[in-house]
Amino acid sequence: MADDLRPTGSTVVAAALALFAEHGYEQTSVEQIAQSAGVSRSTFFRQFGGKDDVVFADHELLLDRLRAYLSEAHENPWAAVCEASVQIYRHFASDPEIARRRYAVVRQVPSLRDREIVTVFRYERAFDEYLRRSVPGLDPVDAVAFAAAVTAVHNHVLRRLLRGSTRVPAAVLETAYDELLRRFGVHPDPEPAADDDIVVATFPRRMPPAEVARRLGALRD
């Protein structure tokens, strides 16, 4: 999922975040942002609905790319959810200073914090809905639990990046997801047989029944 924000849009976002950091969110006007970015007021409103949309512009882009990625066929839906989350993390980690400026602005403005909560839920819901589509018969509790766990782990690692002064590579998140996949019993790589495995193939008992059925169906194909 390559970064495809238009250059003008990226410039406006960077200019807005710099002004918010220097003067405060409420004290910064659209006119100031447009002037700093070298665009007209009308151009600003063509690309963004308002100041809050500038702050969350990357998220709207990423949610669109996330849905496109999850609309493709994937051999292991659970791993696909993790990979999608890693790609989102790579976007923010590619420019940690911009990400930290955005984080600082959001923390200071209650309305932005509320919108962030809703935005995080939109990622989680996209994961949840994808799993239910991709694993027929999946217990909704298993879909919700995995989607919530992926989102929580992502946010934990991202906060380490945002609150620190050093880079936190995507490998940290990938390692965490590797463990998460094993905890849910849905890792694409087989595990050594255990005493409590379901005796049909080597499937851990903790694996959701719908995922067992999906994998058995794949073996028959």
From TrEMBL:
<feature type="DNA-binding region" description="H-T-H motif">
    <location>
        <begin position="29"/>
        <end position="48"/>
    </location>
</feature>
<dbReference type="InterPro" id="IPR001647">
    <property type="entry name" value="HTH_TetR"/>
</dbReference>
<dbReference type="Pfam" id="PF17754">
    <property type="entry name" value="TetR_C_14"/>
</dbReference>
<keyword id="KW-0238">DNA-binding</keyword>
<dbReference type="InterPro" id="IPR009057">
    <property type="entry name" value="Homeodomain-like_sf"/>
</dbReference>
<feature type="domain" description="HTH tetR-type">
    <location>
        <begin position="6"/>
        <end position="66"/>
    </location>
</feature>
<dbReference type="InterPro" id="IPR050109">
    <property type="entry name" value="HTH-type_TetR-like_transc_reg"/>
</dbReference>
<dbReference type="Pfam" id="PF00440">
    <property type="entry name" value="TetR_N"/>
</dbReference>
<protein>
    <submittedName>
        <fullName>Helix-turn-helix domain-containing protein</fullName>
    </submittedName>
</protein>
<dbReference type="InterPro" id="IPR041347">
    <property type="entry name" value="MftR_C"/>
</dbReference>
